[in-house]
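Case study B.
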Amino acid sequence: MMKSMKARAKAGNALIYAILSGLSFIWLLPIVWLIMSSFRKEPGAYTAYIIPKEFTLDNYTRLFTETTLFNYPRWFMNTLIVAIFSCIISTVIVLLTSYALSRLRFKMRKPMMNIALVLGMFPGFMSMIAIYHILKAFGLTQSLFALVLVYSGGAALGYYISKGFFDTIPKAIDESAMLDGASKNTIFWKITLPLSKPIVVYTILMAFIGPWVDFIFVSVIMKDNYQNYTVALGLFQMLSRENIYQYFTRFAAGAVLIAIPITILFIYMQKYYVSGITGGSVKG
Amino acid sequence: MKKLLILLATLLLATSLVACKAEEPVAEVKDVTLKVWGSQDDQAMLGEMVEAFKAANTGVNWTIELGVVGEPDARTKYLEDPEAAADVFAYPNDQVMDLVNAGALYEVTINKDAIVAANIQSAVDAATVDGKLYGYPMTADNGYFMYYDKSVYSEEDVKSLDKMLEVAQAAGKKVFFDVSNGWYIASFFIGAGNTFSMVDGKQVLDFNNETGVKVGEAIKAFTAHPAFLTGDDNIFKAGMGTTIAAGVSGTWNAGDISTILGANYAATKLPEYTLGGVATQLGSFAGFKLMGVNSLTAFPEEAMALAEFLTNEANQIKRFETRKLGPSNKNAAQNEAVLADVALSALAQQAPFAISQNSVAGTYWGPAEAFGLALENKDYTMSIQAMLDALVSQAAGE
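Model:
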């Protein structure tokens, strides 16, 4: 009896592992292919074989040395700058909004939350042309500052997840702090925030990744100002029908490099990504 | 509430102030500010041309900026914000209808006769809408023809599609033709004498008549041949020289194909195919790139002078020398170096069988692609007649 149960558990596990390995293979294949393409010596977007015949680092070095046609280093810095600033601004906005909506009670709180939720459901690019004309009226188009505004402007609408997290932090902690004379502001910075590392990290990561992957807003705002492109729009220029054959492997290299700052941030942040911190904070 | 209103009012005031500060000062020496759009690959060359233009036209305080917008994106980028668009921009001739309908283009009024006389008739026609000229012809190389591998084919072989397939099959290679693409598949119909026309803004095709059905059968036989291969540019370039012996494509691939094939590189007009037992020459589309002047420009005369300069004979030759772009200017096309170019001379051989894309509507491409795709996938559930009827009615937007 015991034996057959064990055998069944084993068989079940084997099946699960087989499915998981299959899934991870499917999931990893494009990434492996992209990385291999970035080291491929033969040009062209498509080859009849998967493993490149010759490997080279040229694609990476030429991305940074041959900048007359495609100024990758400049685009990379543009994106990094925009990502850092919009990350800081939108993280602060999201956390402050969420805290206010979670802890404070004021008139119109519920309707405001509902409106924000509904607004958040519309895709951002719906307002793209309107945003462009507003920026134009202020004379801000084609600048990196405009991009920072666009990426961080709507941040407050994404309050929902962090508000949910703040709701799980017991009110008792706030109350005991208030008894000790802390104001709402002190509570937020000194007590709630240190307890909310996972959600802070999540918010930072989401805000940082945005500028690296967005294509639509950059292309509308930057238009013909080539020097201020971000990597997503810049790399896409390499894929025009005249250039794709020569530049595809360099495009792949550029795409791999984008992953670096994001990965570094993620690895650095991961140690804070521990749940259950709140669980141990209230003694009793 | 009151505070909010005051805030709003201030904001409105601020925006309106920002919006209306743009009045041009009138100086002794005329200040002219112009912007030119061209593709990224053209920037360095355009910069040199603009410098030459400034040097040739002194007495004006020129400020000429360059912006990066490639020809294929011209229409989209223009329509997003016409005021921010360039004064002079390059666009492909298939966008001319939409741009004219949007009121985007300034009619060419200065030196019109000289421009018409200097350029080939088909390019001028492509830039003309209702008898008015809306663009300066710049290049005449947006078409397709047959690239082939000299080690597989003789000059005699490439005259007939059947022969090409036969030779390729014997050599264990393929003939590449992107049939599931309205631009390429049209070549069979154009060759057979089927026509495109626009009636009341709707696409009218006669592809489902008796000839059209024969054409459909010919495409079906072609796609069913074991040596037939379809795909996009990437598939073509990856296989050319190894698994692919010949393929239909355009001048934008000339540099890459000649590198791949080396000494075996050759190109010629499209071959003849068998239409109901009769050898028939494949037709094609001919496309042109034009330089247009923005109707909202503050300096129309100067913008026209610049556009004319950028597309004159000398600059068309310069375009060929730096970027291998085929000229539309009659004299430039007779330049020795241009005549010696393999791809451009193949295109020139194909030119008599090519038609302009001006009467092709946006609704044509989707149904044509579906038709080609069904044949490529050997999906014969519907008769050719029924498939062509569907193509014609869908292209008309019914």
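Residues 220 and 375 of chain B are 6 Å apart (CA to CA). The remaining cases will be described in the next quarterly update.
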